[in-house]
Every structure is written in structure tokens, then in C-alpha cells.
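Data deposition worksheet. Section B asks for the primary sequence of the deposited chain exactly as it was used as input, without tags or linkers unless they were present during the calculation. Section C holds the resulting structure in C-alpha cell form. Section D is free text for depositor observations; keep each observation to a single sentence. Incomplete worksheets are returned to the depositor.
Section A, Depositor: J.P.
Section B:
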Amino acid sequence: MNIAVSYHETLTKLQGLDWPAQGPFDRLDWFALLDDPLYALAESGRGRVLLPLQREEHQLASLANWFSFTWRPLGDDPALLAALARDLRRQTHRVGVAPLPDEDGSATALEIAFRDAGWLVAREVCDENHVLPVAGRSFAEYWAARPGKMRTTLKRKARKVEITILKHFDEAAWAEYRGVYESSWKPQEERADLLEAFARAEGAAGRIRLGIARAAGEPVAAQFWTVENGTAYIHKLAHIEAAKPLSAGTTLSAALFEHAIDIDRVELVDFGTGSDGYKRDWMEANRPRYRLTCLDWRNPRAWLAIAKARFRHLAPHNRPS
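Section C:
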């Protein structure tokens, strides 16, 4: 089988190629928003695999940022993955990629490809992903299984706020979202321009679910979701601290869950990465996210990193008693 490997710094030559996107972070238009890309492409007569990477000071890394729920190869042909892993030794001495899922086999497939190509590979859990498998339930059935405190809060506070859920990008609603976020407990938004560009694209595609809760006409909570391929993704949520007694965040979350489950008929709700305790009240399963660090032991530039990695591995066993 003839395999051609090529590298691209723009998407110009890749736009005509089609990969089925499993989610929002698998599409070429998402990668187009990110900086310093290097797209590694392997092609043969039977298919293609793309590794969206970015240049960092001492390595090639996954083309992702803080906002990405996942990163994975586009395409799963083992022979093409292996060809990319072999050829990348000509580009760098180190490849670090995260956050990789493995419920679809992505982390394992990439680890095998790099190991078989002669790299030293370390795999570690770097984050967690809380999800809700809907399992055919209605929202009422799902809600009946929530903690009693949540159900009581919603029953007592739901009428104190008005809820709007938009399925298109709206300038005024986005300005309200930004205002709520800036007045919340959340840190200042990093790359707010990227988030807005993503929201606009999701709105144009009909995938956005932008929820606003208002009290006396003033926005007090806001959430940014998207829906596609049977999954609802919860990207951002915030509420104004001064309005916390209204429990507007709980009311808005419940409304968006109800919309996603009963109207959008999703099979899964994905709460992204992070170990925030409140996610456990809403979600029912937890999936690990992995980091792979791949070092080319043949390249002298990798030797210090290899030595440090081995020291970290051995040090706990060598400490004096």
C-alpha cells in the first residue's frame, strides 16, 4: 500500500477533504480558529488520517486550547496512523497530545501507533469528563432521580426568573451572556474572541442553544450549549453572584436539560472537562481524558526529557526509609 505523508500550515489544501465530525472539536472550521497549526496528513488509496497539531517551543502538541473537550486524530486507519508516527520523527523529537478520549479507542490507537514506530510513550490521565447517558428517559424521569435538594430548589425558585432559549446566534443575547459572565465568580474569559467566533459558527449551523435567565427583566444567569449528532455539549455557564439567592443557574440548567432531552432528543449530555463537584449532581458517568507524551529516544534533544521521566518514575522507590 502506497502511503503519502504531507504537512500543511493552512487549511487551504485540506478544505475539499471530508472527515465525519464526531463533535464540535473535530471540524476543520474549529481548527481554523487556533494558532500555529501544523496539519500532518497521511493518505492512501483507501483513506486518509489527519493529525491537527500545533508548534510549541519544545514539541509538537495537539491543536487544542482550554476550550476543547477533546482532541483526537481525524480518521482511524491503523496503517496511516503508523505512517504518521514514523514520519513525525523527521519533524520533532517530542509529541504531546491531550485531551484524548478512549471510549472510542482514540488514545489506545495513537499510543500503539507511536510505540510501534519506535517512540517512547507515556500515557497518563490528565482530566475527567462528566456525562449523562439519557438512556431513553424523559426529562421528568431524569429529574426524579436528581438529589432532593436540587428538586426542592427548582420547585421553590423556578417562578422567580424568566427563561429564554435561543437556537440561533443573537447579538443582544450574546452581549447579555458576556455581561453575566463578567459579573460572575468566573475568571476573565481567555480568548473571548475565539469563543464568540465559535458561537457564531454554531449559531449559523443551527447547533447553538443559548440560554438566558432574567429577573425583573435583567439577565442574571447565562449558559452556552450546542447540540449535534445526538449529544448536547455544555460549554459555558455563569450567574451573577448578587442574584445567587434566586437560584437562577439551577432553573436555567433544568430548562436547558429539559430542552435537550425532550425537544432535541439527545442521547448524551456532555459537561466537558473538569472535576467541579456540582457536575456530579447533574451527570451520572465520568470518563477519563488522557495525555500522551511521545519521545524519540534516537534524538539527543529528547534525552534530558527521557532522563527526567525515568527519574520521576523511579524516585518514589528510591527514597530512603
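Section D:
Residues 32 and 91 are 21 Å apart (CA to CA).
Residues 248-263 form the longest helix (16 residues).
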